[in-house]
């Protein structure tokens, strides 16, 4: 059952990628509030990625959410949500702003992040989401300000907040005198995908890739390479080739469940990837380190 939360130090709002059954129940074991979900991205229409969404939206409303919520999802799922809520007489206390992922062009700019959809390869249309941090606090280029004869004053604070100001008749642009405190962090969270190469144009400078590894390579060859899913070897090799520093694998076949059953997947991934490698389990929490500019 897939659901991945993304939160930010600079905002109380958070983002959710996929919402399978049990998502809102699992949230009870976290510090995340359903009332603060601002963005929901669904990768594809299979139930193990989206059947928890009608109940989640209802719970968000019951928890007092009144601010608009952005939903990025396949058009069929948007229709399913409207029908589910309508047929059960659910009246949301917030505006649900829907974007069909199939027609999402470029990045969607939100208050605390930017979201870009990446088309993947699965049995049904499936997408990954590249999420880039926004709102990184600014620092002043003090040496440049002094070199340009701009004395300290209230305009320093305005520039640091991203505001352009006028100083002694001269227009000062915030972008010219400030820089980000750290490089905006960027991650990709994928839906089901049998072809990691579909990501190759979007992985430059990402900090973390979350990708399914349903099979070992040998098992995938045994069941057939066009299952719509990937294997640990293939995605590990891809992450190593593209110098991705953190890789989180998830969505394991039930054949690997139980004590020590993941060892074959772990051994295969570790053989082909030298970065920070994680195997998803319920309530796993990862922190993306800040890199200075």
TrEMBL record:
Record flagged with keyword Hydrolase: yes
Binding site for Zn(2+) 1: 44, 46, 122, 192
EC number annotated for this UniProt entry: 3.1.26.11
Cofactor note: Binds 2 Zn(2+) ions.
Catalysis: reaction(s): Endonucleolytic cleavage of RNA, removing extra 3' nucleotides from tRNA precursor, generating 3' termini of tRNAs. A 3'-hydroxy group is left at the tRNA terminus and a 5'-phosphoryl group is left at the trailer molecule
Top-level division of the source organism's lineage: Bacteria
Cofactors named for this entry: Zn(2+)
Molecular function terms, GO-annotated: 3'-tRNA processing endoribonuclease activity; zinc ion binding
Active site: 48 (proton acceptor)
Keywords tagged on the record: Endonuclease, Hydrolase, Metal-binding, Nuclease, tRNA processing, Zinc
Pfam families xref list: Anti-Pycsar_Apyc1
Residues bound to Zn(2+) 2: 48-49, 192, 251
Family, per entry: Belongs to the RNase Z family.
Chain's role: Zinc phosphodiesterase, which displays some tRNA 3'-processing endonuclease activity. Probably involved in tRNA maturation, by removing a 3'-trailer from precursor tRNA.
Subunit field text: Homodimer.
Protein name: Ribonuclease Z
Organism of origin: Pseudoalteromonas amylolytica
